[in-house]
Design goal:
By secondary structure, the chain is mostly helical. The chain is 54% helix and 5% strand. A 3-stranded parallel β-sheet has the order 1-2-3. It is flat. The model has no long low-confidence stretch (mean pLDDT 95).
Length: 159
């Protein structure tokens, strides 16, 4: 397939392949679905036909609120975009810290720090989700709002 893609610029027309639409792709039998391009792709109209048991949102907002409810009722776990695709924002923060503090981290150190932050965030969100019996998106929002509330309490409204 790589050779075909390199030669033709597309995966379309690959020998013995079957063409599927983007809509059909979302509904294929799979364990993990990663919508990573456009928002609102999983919606009320197609959520009931999603077969994946785990959805990891690589795009910003690929799942509508109505679809979230349907997926939750079906027992599908959705790792929300604010958690699943946060790596770029975290690394941008690391770059800012390095610039302000004149630190110079190599790629391995940045990746280690990133893995630590993301793993801790996931563990916190999962814990809230399980303890409060809410979906992962709601748990992520609960964590975020709780952090904001603590910061305001510690700093006051105007730091």
């Amino acid at each position: 397939m790589l050779r075909h893609k390199t030669e033709t610029g597309s995966v379309l027309g690959f020998e013995d392949s079957e063409t599927v639409t983007n809509a059909e792709l979302l509904e294929l039998q799979c364990d993990i679905l990663v919508p990573a391009a456009l928002e609102d792709q999983i919606c009320k109209a197609n959520a009931s036909r999603i077969k994946a048991r785990l959805i990891i949102e690589g795009a910003n907002g690929p799942t509508t609120a109505e679809a979230d409810e349907i997926l939750c009722d079906k027992g599908v776990t959705v790792i929300p975009d604010v958690l699943a695709n946060t790596g770029g924002v975290i690394v941008s923060y690391f770059e800012w810290v390095q610039g302000i503090q004149s630190f110079f981290w190599d790629e391995a150190e940045v990746n280690d720090k990133l893995q630590h932050v993301v793993a801790n965030a996931f563990a916190e969100v999962l814990s809230i989700s399980q303890h409060e019996k809410v979906d992962m998106r709601t748990a992520a929002y609960m964590l975020a709002i709780g952090r904001i509330a603590r910061a305001i309490t510690l700093r006051g409204i105007y730091p």
